[in-house]
Amino acid sequence: MSFEGEGSAYLDLEGRVFRSAANTANGEVDDETLFFYHQQGEVVWAEYEGGEVVKGQLLGRWRGDGKLEFAYHHLNRSGLVMAGTCLSVPEIRADGSLRLDEEWQWLTGDGSKGRSTIVEVGLA
């Protein structure tokens, strides 16, 4: 699938597994949270869980500038459904694995912004 006016500069995330490496205090994802990514063309989605997150999903796409934009929602251990948006910038690390540096904002709760990093830990 190609989006009108967009380039095709994107990495393949299909089957990659990531773990949270850093997050601001207002985030709910922590080092116990795992992300299981899927991809078809420029469309990317993932399931995530662990730590404060009971179950979550994200859906987005690669932009023409090589950044990943998506929306996410999850159920937390307090029983609240939380949602937000995120922009991720990929980095290929020296060992060939990926790192995603993220800027996100809650659409629920206090609407605050934050920064996080997730790192690839393997393949599903």
Walkthrough of the structure:
The chain is mostly beta strands and 124 residues long. It has a single domain, classed as Avidin-like (Lipocalin, Beta Barrel), CATH 2.40.128.30. It contains no helices and 8 strands. The chain has strands at residues 16-23, 34-40, 43-50, 53-62, 68-76, 81-92, 98-106, 113-123. The radius of gyration is 14 Å and the shape is globular.
Secondary-structure map with pairings?
Blueprint: E1 16-23, E2 34-40, E3 43-50, E4 53-62, E5 68-76, E6 81-92, E7 98-106, E8 113-123
Main attributes?
Lipocalin; 60% strand; disordered N terminus; mainly beta; 124 residues
CATH architecture: Beta Barrel
Number of strands: 8
Mean pLDDT: 93
Count, helices: 0
The proportion of strand residues reads over 45%
Structure classification: mainly beta
What is the succession of H and E elements? Answer: EEEEEEEE
CATH homologous superfamily name?
Avidin-like
Q: In the residues, how many domains can be counted?
A: 1
The poorly predicted ranges are: 1-7
CATH topology: Lipocalin
* Shape category: globular
Give the strand order, joined by hyphens, for the main sheet: 1-2-3-4-5-6-7-8
CATH class: Mainly Beta
- State Rg: 14 Å
The portion of residues assigned to helices is: under 10%
Task: Report the span from N to C terminus.
Answer: 23 Å
